[in-house]
Specification:
single chain; 381 residues; mainly alpha
Length: 381
């Protein structure tokens, strides 16, 4: 049983990291490596890298799962919970406060001026992230085809979850040369078309779901259980589940929620806290936050012992490579849909300027969104 002082140290360290961790998962992981490997020597660098490879194989936010894993190694099951909760708490608290101001002040004319520039800046952030991830993840023409097929499938109505896992599973066999190259393309296309038929049939029989805490929690629990590809892919799942399938949010509200998740510290998935508050107040914020992060705790708890060895397997590596490009395909699909919100030349100008700034200077995404808000305040009279 770890000592109380050790558990208190875990809480202090991850509260600090959750408060100062800005810049996305890569920046979060870099801060953890500096704090826990270099400065405090909690784990060796080899063990840290093994954990990092392991978290890439399971759904959920990588940096949060790294925090949970490191807490477990340092403090057992108590550390498992304390580290994850402490890392999430600052982002969730700040996001909940932003949601309160949004709900109570977002309709004021003064606030509307500032919010005018946020959706186009957010779209530019997603576009730049998709491009950056594409350059990293796509290493062959097979992967490019998988990503393109998943993007097209999502645009024509295939369930995002079905498209993601079909792209991952079939891409795994194709990348491992288990089927001929041409046959692989045919199989991928046919499987996605078939899954699209299943998804469209399900959509026809679906009924409108009321907003209750139970239904809200179920949506975010489902998203947290299948979210591969990092926080930006969250946009695709939420757009499908909350905008198109249930009509609980407008696309403008979704973009606002994503923007808040970008300029607050900690995991981007704190976007769920914002949406939960907008839909169901304080209880909704709590339920949505628990729902989206709970799977990460469970995955780390049950797979901690075996995941570091799985990544070295060629089949698991091929599956992960295929899922990564499939996730980027989902991002591209939702990006295309979200551009329909740009109905004014001023918003297109802000989006183009934000994208150019991202490419040229690579600032933190939060600064791009702040810049978009300032541009909106200037351009809207």
């Amino acid at each position: 049983m770890p000592s109380r002082s050790r558990l208190l140290e875990i809480a202090q360290v991850f509260l600090k990291l959750g408060t100062i961790s800005v810049g996305g998962p890569a920046a979060h992981v870099a801060l953890m490596e500096d704090e826990l490997v270099t400065r405090r020597r909690w784990v060796s660098r080899d063990d840290f890298l093994d954990l990092l490879g392991a978290t890439n194989l399971i759904p959920g936010p990588n940096s949060t799962e790294m925090a949970i894993s490191l807490g477990y190694l340092r403090g057992g099951w108590a550390g498992w919970f304390i580290a994850g909760a402490a890392f999430i708490l600052p982002a969730a608290s700040i996001t909940a406060m932003c949601a309160w101001f949004y709900v109570h002040g977002g309709t004021l004319p003064q606030a509307a001026r500032w919010w005018f520039g946020i959706p186009p800046a957010t779209i530019a952030v997603i576009a730049f992230a998709a491009w950056r991830l594409t350059r990293t993840a796509v290493k062959s023409h097979q992967q490019a085809i998988i990503g393109l097929a998943v993007a097209i499938a999502a645009l024509v109505g295939v369930s995002e979850i079905v498209a993601l896992f079909m792209g991952g599973l079939l891409g795994m066999f194709w990348l491992r040369r288990a089927v001929p190259r041409v046959a692989g393309r045919v199989v991928v296309a046919a499987a996605l078309i078939l899954s699209g038929g299943v998804s469209l049939a399900a959509a026809v029989t679906a009924t409108r779901v009321p907003i209750t805490l139970w239904n809200l929690g179920a949506v975010f629990l489902k998203v947290g259980s299948v979210l591969y590809g990092g926080g930006y892919v969250l946009v695709a799942f939420l757009e499908a589940a909350l905008v198109r399938e249930r009509g609980w949010l407008t696309e403008r509200q979704l973009l606002d929620a994503i923007a808040v998740g970008q300029f607050t510290p900690g995991p981007v998935l704190s976007t769920a806290t914002f949406i939960g508050y907008v839909l169901a107040g304080g209880p909704g914020a709590i339920v949505a936050t628990i729902g989206i992060f709970l799977p990460s705790f469970l995955f780390v708890a049950y797979l901690q012992a075996i995941l570091p060895r799985i990544r070295r397997g060629v089949w698991a590596a091929a599956f992960l490579d295929a899922v990564n490009v499939a996730a980027i395909g989902l991002m591209v699909a939702v990006l295309i849909r979200l551009t329909s919100n740009l109905t004014d030349w001023r918003q297109w100008t802000i989006a183009a300027a934000a994208l150019a700034a991202g490419v040229l200077w690579k600032p933190h995404a939060g600064w791009l969104i702040v810049g978009g808000a300032m541009a909106g305040a200037v351009l809207v009279r």
